[in-house]
């Protein structure tokens, strides 16, 4: 069994997450599930994980739902969550 990656957050992400969940309480479960899925298997096709380019090169994104994304840094043993929001908000 693969080991679970450690999840860390930035202060900016923590603020954005609080605002996001306040605005979208119906997505609390999906957001938790997406973060847990990333920790277990970052490249599971259900996450729709993809590398970003341009000014966000070096970062990755994964889907929470059709409209919402998590943006993160990925290393061998951890994921650092840096942003959350709609496609237009995070890219």
From TrEMBL:
Gene3D superfamilies: RelE-like (3.30.2310.20)
Top-rank taxon, per record: Bacteria
Record Pfam families: YafQ_toxin (PF15738)
Matching InterPro entries: RelE/ParE_toxin (IPR007712), RelE/ParE_toxin_dom_sf (IPR035093), Toxin_YafQ-like (IPR004386)
Keyword Chaperone annotated: no
SUPFAM superfamilies in the cross-refs: RelE-like
Keyword Lipid metabolism annotated: no
Keywords: Toxin-antitoxin system
Name of the featured protein: Plasmid stabilization protein
Lineage: Bacteria, Candidatus Kaiseribacteriota
């Amino acid at each position: 069994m693969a080991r679970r990656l450690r999840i860390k957050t930035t202060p900016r992400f923590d603020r954005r997450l609080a605002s996001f969940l306040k605005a979208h309480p119906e997505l609390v479960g999906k957001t938790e599930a997406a973060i847990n899925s990333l920790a277990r298997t970052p490249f599971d096709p259900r996450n729709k994980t993809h590398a970003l380019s341009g000014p966000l090169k070096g970062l990755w994104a994964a889907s929470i739902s059709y409209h919402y994304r998590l943006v993160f840094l990925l290393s061998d043993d951890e994921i650092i969550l840096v942003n959350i929001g709609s496609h237009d908000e995070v890219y």
